[in-house]
Amino acid sequence: MNTMGWLVKREYWEHRGGFLWTPIWVSVVMLALTLFGIVTAEVVGSRVQVQGGVPWDRIAEHLQSGSAGLAAAGLDAAYVALAAILCIPLFFVLFFYLLGSLYDDRRDRSVLFWKSLPVTDTATVLSKVLAAVLLAPLIAFVVATLAYVVLLLIVCAWAVVHGINPLPAIAASHPLSLLWRLTLTIPVDALWALPTVGWLMFWSAFARSKPFLWAVLVPIFVVVANSWLGMLGAPSLSRSFLLDQVVFRLLFGIMPGAWLGDSGLDLGERIRAASNNGETGTILAIFDPSVVYGLLATPKLWIGVVVGVILIAVATRLRRTRIETST
Amino acid sequence: MSAVIHARDLGKRYGANVALDRVSFDIEAGRIVGLIGPNGAGKTTALKAILGLSEFEGELGVLGFDPRTERAQLMEQVCFIADVAVLPRWLRVGEAIDFVAGVHPRFSREKCEAFLANTKIARSMRVRELSKGMIVQLHLALVMAIDARVLILDEPTLGLDILYRKTFYESLLSDYFDENKTIIVTTHQVEEVEHILTDLIFIRDGRIVLDASMEAIAERYTEVMVNPDKADAARALKPLNERSIFGKSIFLFDGVERARLAELGELHKPSIADLFVATMKGTYA
Q1: B175 and B47 in one domain?
Q2: Of B51, B53, B99, which has the smallest distance from its Cβ to A10's Cβ?
Q3: Which chain A residues touch B48 with a CB distance below 8 Å?
Q4: B39 in the same domain as B172
Q5: Residue from the list B55, B88, B103 with its beta carbon closest to the beta carbon of A113
C-alpha cells in the first residue's frame, strides 16, 4: 500500500467511532424502532404508526392489497430514507472531524511524531480531505445498504407471517439501480463540500485555540456587520445571498445532498409523493446521473471548488510551521 | 568530508526576542553531540530549524538538504524523539508499527519487534494504556528500527525514572549508534549523557559559548583543589569559577598550563555539570 493509503487508514483508525460506529448505531436504532412498531401494530392489531423514518405503513398496506408496484415504491423510499437519515450524523461527525483535523494533534503535540516521518504536509492534508469527502460517506452508504438488506428480511418475514408473497414487490423495486445512482452522488457531494472542507481545515490549521469559535463566529460576525452596513445605508450584500451562497456553503456544504435543495429539487416532498402515488420510477429519476451531474454545469459549484482548493492550500502552508497551540 | 549539519549565521527571532543570534556550527558524522543550555537559550529553536519545523534566517544544510523545502526527503534520513508525550494516545502499538512500516522506506519491522520483545509492551495496547517509561520504550523501538543517519533527541528522558533513563542511553549506544550515525541530544540531565558524548555545544542567550570535542575540553579545562593558603595565588590566574568544599577551594581554569596548576594543589577533570554551571553563571540573574 502506498503512503496515501496508509495516511487515509490512519484517519480511519483514529476516527473509527465517528466514521463506522456512528452510522451503524443510528441504523440499528432505526431498524429497532421499525421492528418495535411492527410488533406493536401486530399485537394491538390496529394502525399504530411505525416510527423510525421508514414508510412501513405504506409498504404493509400495499403488500396486503396486492399492489406490488405501490409496495415497491415504498421499498425504494425506505432505502433512500435509510441512507438520508445517516447524512445528519455524518454532517456532525465531519464538521468536528475537519475542525480537529489539523488542530488536535497540535494540541496533544503528537504532530511532532507525525512530522518525524517522511510524509509531506501536502500528503497529510490531502489524506484528511479524502477521508472526509470519500471514505466517511462511502462507509455510511455501505452501512445504509446493509440496513436496507436487513429491512428487506424484516419485510419478507412479516409477509410470510401474513401469508403474502413479497417477491413481486421486491422484484418491482430498484435496489441495484438506486445503489448505483446513490453511489454516484458521492463524488458530486465531495465537490460541493470543498468550500466547507477548506473553511474548517483552514481554521483548524490556523487557530491557536478554539477553532470552532473562529469557524462559526467569523461568518456570524460578517452577516451581522453586513446587515448593520445595510441599515446605515452603506453598500452591503443582500442578506439572503450572504446566508445561502456564502455562509451556508462554508458551514453546511459537507451535508450530503446539500445541493439538492439548492438546485430547486425538493427531495423529501418528491419522494413522499412518489411513494404515495406508486410512481416507482420517480425516486430513481431524482437521482438520475444526468440530473445529478447537471450540477457540474453550474458556475457556483466550480466557484466553490476554487474557494475550497485555495483554503486547503493555505491550510497546507500553515501546517508547515504552525505547530504550537496556546493550550 | 562534508558536515552532516552545516549552519552559517543561523538566526531566528520571535518579535523583538532573539532566540538564535546568527550562530554557525558544523556537526560531523559519527559524533554524539550534546546541545546544552539553560531554559530559553535556543536549543529547541535550533533543533526545530534543523528539522524543518520552523522558518529561520541564514544558511542551514542537513545532509545536504534544505530543511525548509526538502523536508520529506530529509526525514527519511533523520529521526527525532521530541519528548515522552508525543505519541498519540489513541494509537495502538500494532497500528504504530504498521503505519511507520507503511510510510518509512528505511524501517525494519523485524528490528522493531525484536526491541519490543524485551519489554512488556503488547501489540494490542493503546498508547494511553502505557506508562511514560513504556511510551519512550515504544518510541525508541520505532526510531531505532529506522536506518537513519541522524537522530535528534530533545529532552528524551524527561520525567522518566532512573531505570528507564539508564536503559535508554545504554540501548542507544549498544544497539543503534555506529560511525555512520550522528546523534544530537539536548537534556538537562547532563551527568547522564556526559560519558557518551563526543562533542559538546553550550548555548546561551541564542549564542554558542562553547563548541568543542570532549578531548579538547579535557585538554582545556582543569579543576584544582587548593588549600586556603594558596587560594590567592590561584585567584591571580583568573579562574572561571570558584567554589569551596570541606574548607578547600575548587577552582576551574580554562587553558592554564597543567604544570603551573599542579603547584597549587590536586588536579581533577571537571565534570560537564561544573563546567556548565561556571559557563552559565549569571544567566537568570
Answers
A1: yes
A2: B99
A3: 323
A4: yes
A5: B88
Question: In this model, does residue B2 exceed pLDDT 90?
Answer: no
Question: What is the per-residue pLDDT across B77-89, written as a single tens digit (0 to 9) for each?
Answer: 999 888 766 899 9
Residue A117 in contact with partner chain B when CB distance is under 8 A: yes
Chain B residues within 8 A (CB-CB) of chain A? 48, 51, 53-55, 71-76, 79-82, 85-92, 95, 98-100, 102-105, 139, 143
Q: Which residue has the cell 597543567?
A: B258
Question: Where a domain ends, among B205, B239, B255?
Answer: B205
The per-residue pLDDT for B142 is 93
**Contact, B34 vs B10, CB < 8 A?**
no
Distance between CA atoms of residues B138 and B128, nearest Å: 12
Question: CB A117 to CB B92 under 8 A?
Answer: no
The yes-or-no verdict on residue A263 having pLDDT over 80 is: no
Q: Is the pLDDT confidence value at A306 over 90?
A: yes
Residue in this structure with the C-alpha cell 421508514, named with its chain if needed: A54
Q: Among all residues of chain B, which has the CA nearest to that of A320?
A: B53
- pLDDT band for position B163 (50/70/90)? confident
What domain range includes position B174?
30-53+70-205
Last residue of a domain, one of B150, B176, B205: B205
- Please report, for chain B, how many H helices and E strands are present, in that order: 11, 13
**How would DSSP label each residue in B145-193?**
TB--SEEEEESTTTT--HHHHHHHHHHIIIII--TT-EEEEE-S-HHHH
How does residue B42 score in pLDDT terms, banded at 50, 70 and 90? confident
Q: Output the pLDDT for position A283.
A: 77
What is the pLDDT at residue B39? 80
B68, closest residue in chain A (CA to CA) = A320
Q: B200 and B221: one domain?
A: no
| Contact with chain B for residue A1, Cβ under 8 A | yes
Q: Is A88 left (phi over 0), alpha (psi -120 to 50) or beta?
A: alpha
Are residue B130 and residue B192 in the same domain, yes or no? Answer: yes
CB proximity list for A316: less than 8 A, separation 6 or greater: A121, A122, A125, A205
Q: Name the residue among B91, B104, B139 with its Cβ closest to that of A118.
A: B104
As a whole number, mean pLDDT of residues A237-248 equals 85
Measured in angstroms, the CA of B25 and the nearest CA of chain A are apart by 23
Secondary-structure percent of chain A, ordered helix, strand, coil, rounded to 5 = 80, 0, 20
Secondary structure class of B254 (helix, strand, coil)? strand
pLDDT for residue B240: 83
For A240, the domain range is 3-321
User: Residue A270's pLDDT band (boundaries 50, 70, 90)?
Assistant: low
Q: Residue B58 falls within a domain, yes or no?
A: no
From the list B86, B90, B104, which residue is nearest A113 (CB)? B86
Tell me what the mean pLDDT of segment A120-133 comes to.
Answer: 96
The secondary element (H helix, E strand) that includes residue B14 is strand B5-14
